[in-house]
Amino acid sequence: MNLRPERWTLTQEALDLFLARLDPDRDRAGQIYEQIRHKLVTFFRCNGFWDGEDLVDETLDRVIRRHAEVEIIDLMAFIRGVARRVASESHKLQVRQIPLDDAPELVRKDNTVNDPEETAIAEKRLICLEQCASRLHKADRDLVGEYYRYKGRQKIENKRKMAEAMGITPGTLRVRAFRVRLQLEGCMTQCMGGGVTS
Asked: CB 93: neighbour CB atoms within 10 A?
């Protein structure tokens, strides 16, 4: 669920700056980051979002973005404020969204629902994704494919099992997946703009 009013992509530089703010020692910073994530998961669950991983990511992305732009005196108070705002926005979106099964009259049975322009964009996006994924190392491609494979509780359990199988912490796994996602997003942006060729 993307709640951002404008497109912003998390960069390695912004993440490094934020981790350095948490603690100069990288390992200790990773532990603090995980503690913050855990608190945010609890916050969103207490507010009715049982599958709040995406909202946690959204909150941290916003915090990291603002941290790179302005001086934040009380970081934890700021994080709590951003989390409350994300929860509020998400509640409003949930009210507006109607499950397709609950609104069968909105589903058209003819083919006029297919917009040729949207279809062309979707096809280009798929081609770009295939091209960009093929440029990744096989291990990175496998990692990111497995990392984003499931939804809900299954997604959380799968990430835990992945980290355990790789002999790393969930935080380290998250950072690795993030770095691969950055590569993919950069390539996709370039490709959709016409910059990547096969």
From this structure: 12
Task: State the total domains in the chain.
Answer: 2
Q: What's the pLDDT tens digit per position in 26-56?
A: 889 989 999 999 899 888 887 777 767 888 8
Burial class (CB in 10 A: 0-12, 13-18, 19+), 85: middle
CATH code for position 133: 1.10.10
In a domain, 16, yes or no: yes
CA 124 to CA 197: how far, in whole Å? 12
Same domain, 127 and 60: no
pLDDT tens profile 77-98? 999 999 999 988 887 766 444 4
Expressed as residue numbers, the domain containing 185 is 119-192
Global pTM? Answer: 0.49
